Fold this sequence. Notes:
Blueprint: H1 2-14, H2 21-29, E1 37-51, E2 54-65, E3 71-72, E4 82-91, E5 94-100, E6 103-105, E7 126-127, E8 132-135, H3 137-140, E9 146-147, E10 152-153, E11 158-159, E12 177-180, E13 193-201, H4 203-207, E14 215-220, E15 226-227, E16 230-231, H5 246-252, E17 257-263, E18 267-277, E19 283-291, E20 298-304, E21 312-317, E22 333-336, E23 340-344, E24 361-369, E25 373-382, E26 392-398, E27 406-410, E28 423-430, E29 435-441, E30 448-454, E31 456-461, E32 469-473, E33 477-478, E34 485-486, E35 493-498, E36 517-528, E37 533-538, E38 541-545
Antiparallel strand pairs: 1-2, 2-8, 2-12, 3-7, 4-5, 4-6, 4-13, 5-12, 6-9, 10-11, 13-14, 15-16, 17-18, 18-19, 19-24, 20-23, 20-25, 21-24, 22-23, 25-26, 27-38, 28-29, 29-35, 30-33, 30-34, 30-36, 31-32, 36-37, 36-38
Amino acid sequence: MQRNILLSLSLGLALGVAVTADQAAAQCANQSSGPDVIVGDVSGCATYGTASGFSGYALGTTSCNIGNAQLLWISNNTQHPVIGQNIYRLNDGRFEQIGQSWLKHGFTALQQNLCCPCQSSGTGSRLGVGCSDPYGSSLNGSQSGLGPRSEVNAFTGAFLYPFGSQGQTGNAAYKRAQVLRDDVDPANFPNALYFGEAQYVAPDDAAAGNGLNNVSWRRLNRPGAQTSGSFTLSTTGSTVRMQPAVMAWKAQDPTVDVQIVDVPGEGRFWVASNCYQGQGGTFRYEYVVFNLNSHRSACRLTIPIGAGATILNEGMSWPRSHSGEPYDNSPWTMQNLGDRILFTTDSFATDPNANAIRWGTMYSFWFESTNAPEAKTATITLFRPGVEPDPTVSVCGPVGGTPVPVVSNYCNAVINSTGVTGTITAQNIDMNARTMELAGANLPTNAFAFSLASLTQGFVANPGNSTGNICLGGNIGRVVGGNILNTGATGSLVEAVNLDQMPTPSGISVPVGAGEAWYFQFWHRDVIVGLNLPTSNFTNGVRVWFP
């Protein structure tokens, strides 16, 4: 009965339900069986300096023992908790883990009352029933007491002691929660939200079967001022207990679907997905896999797709291992097999230190499609050998259908003499006839113009004597052999394009290949208002993906 009450409370938290005072009281009155350590509070965030482009951070944590037995907290051996810290970013619908720390090894426990009335153990070597113990951010960021994650089995709670690099210190980011400085630069992500997450792993907590509620998260303020060359992160709001930071994504966007995936007798993953129509008409498919405590880890995510579904712009991100951890940071491979998308790293047999989804980390995966979403069953391939089968999970994925071209605008244009910006679009695309049209609008009247094309997107502001931005890069050619067009009395134009005669700088035409994306833009004559002097400008750009 006691476990059922706690399970209901944990599931309520997993669904984003706030914990009421009555629920908190019930949690204290109905302790779980055995020692049960949770993160009662993510208490602050320390900002250190930057080294080699990476900034160092540390999260403060207050643990609580909500079990009915004391939790061992003995220093200088293998009978104490270790504490991990993670940092996440939500930006433009994409949720990513951007940093992880090494593990703080606990050394003594105070007997305080953050979560429940404390029944003191009378010693610093055990955390009493109902008691809490604060570790400030500076303590969790103390480099000499931080050990590798690679030495810990989060499912059993077992770890090595003495731990690797014990007592060693280094630069400002060494062993701490390392985040690429550019990943928190407000200029790069002006609208992003940030979150901190902490996790306790303890051998007696795991032995009691209480290792599934040991992670909590809290919102972080958007970076502002700088500290020793790093953008400052600080906590805001309240700590959300006993759930991973992936639930912060759902808290910000209720359309996100979150699933708990257990490996029988081994560990737990949390999987979230969100599929929706984005700008330009394509559907965005976003996925995350968080490994809470599975020692077996994961080396592949398989997402079924409908036959003929158009798949574009596949990508992924992961938190970087650092400071001497043995794990590889190489990107996963991405394959479209027609009926499924595979995101894969090396197998355990190939490389035991491959870039697998290990405990306490979250990997993000994404792609776009012209095809709408429906329910699919994804597979998580486990990394380390074992008898348990690879788990499956319900996610959203694209339906099948005939691939169609995808058109989207990009790159801001500069206002021309009409007082607005010129635009370009692609229309009437016929893959059988191998033709399409480029249409320009909001241009000066009776002005000369021509179109440009490239296989590469780019950006050059005010090139030469022109006003405006070149939105193309790489090898840029003039469409249809460089025909000169005229905007006429309407300030608009339409140009027919032969998809078998795409331009190159050398003047030799090439056909559009299947799966290629081409980028187009109009150059046009303009005048300097008031001086009647000729100059030129550019429209925005248009991207066309051809199936």
